[in-house]
Design brief:
With 191 residues, the protein is of the alpha+beta class. The protein has helices at residues 6-36, 43-47, 112-117, 145-150, 186-190, and strands at 50-61, 73-79, 82-86, 105-111, 122-128, 136-143, 152-159, 163-165, 168-170, 176-183.
Length: 191
């Protein structure tokens, strides 16, 4: 930035500090609402906590056929815009079950505050793998931050929905994905 006078520069700094304070206040309010919804009333714990999760993509069922009668499904997991995991595809099935060999498990570490404020959970996108051409989105689901934060390895089945990207809707409102999640132990992190 270029300022003509010192007064302009000081005015800019003051406005910037004010906007920063407002942004921090909004973030604090959003975080407070999010954690209160899961029964946590002291947000100071969440603000400085790092969450290490072991996530398992168990399987999916009743998927849309991406090819003539079947699909070759795989899952991409995103936190915000960042891809954090990808399974291998399983050939010719509408009811895939992912295992260790197909990269069903992954570790995810994130500041708890970011889990709630930045993205409110993890996105699971199910695609049909194609050897030629582009991979087709079969559907998407979101595991909410509240489930991930409090997870004790309960199975969560989420309906797949369409996804709108850049004004274009893609995917299908068909099928479900099952995941399981818990806090990662030190042994999990070593493995």
């Amino acid at each position: 930035f270029t300022f003509r006078t010192e007064e302009e520069a000081l005015d800019f700094v003051e406005k910037f500090r004010h906007e920063l304070a407002l942004n921090n206040e909004r973030e604090e309010t959003d975080l407070g609402k999010a954690v209160e919804a899961i029964g946590i009333h002291d947000i100071s714990k969440i603000k400085n906590e790092k969450v290490d999760l072991l996530v398992e993509i168990c399987g999916a069922e009743d998927l849309q056929a991406g090819d003539l009668t079947s699909s070759d499904p795989y899952v991409v997991v995103k936190f915000g815009e960042k891809e954090i995991h990808r399974t291998k595809y399983i050939s010719k099935t509408l009811n895939p079950i992912w295992t260790l060999r197909q990269k069903a498990f992954f570790l995810f570490s994130v500041p708890a505050k970011d889990l709630f404020v930045e993205n409110d959970g993890l996105d699971f996108l199910v695609y049909d793998f194609d050897f030629q051409g582009s991979h087709e989105l079969l559907g998407a689901a979101k595991a909410p931050a509240s489930y991930l934060y409090k997870a004790k390895e309960e199975r969560l089945v989420l309906p797949l929905k369409t996804l709108t990207l850049a004004g274009r809707t893609t995917g299908f409102e068909k099928g479900r994905i099952a995941i399981r999640c818990r806090r990662a132990s030190e042994k999990d992190k070593e493995f």
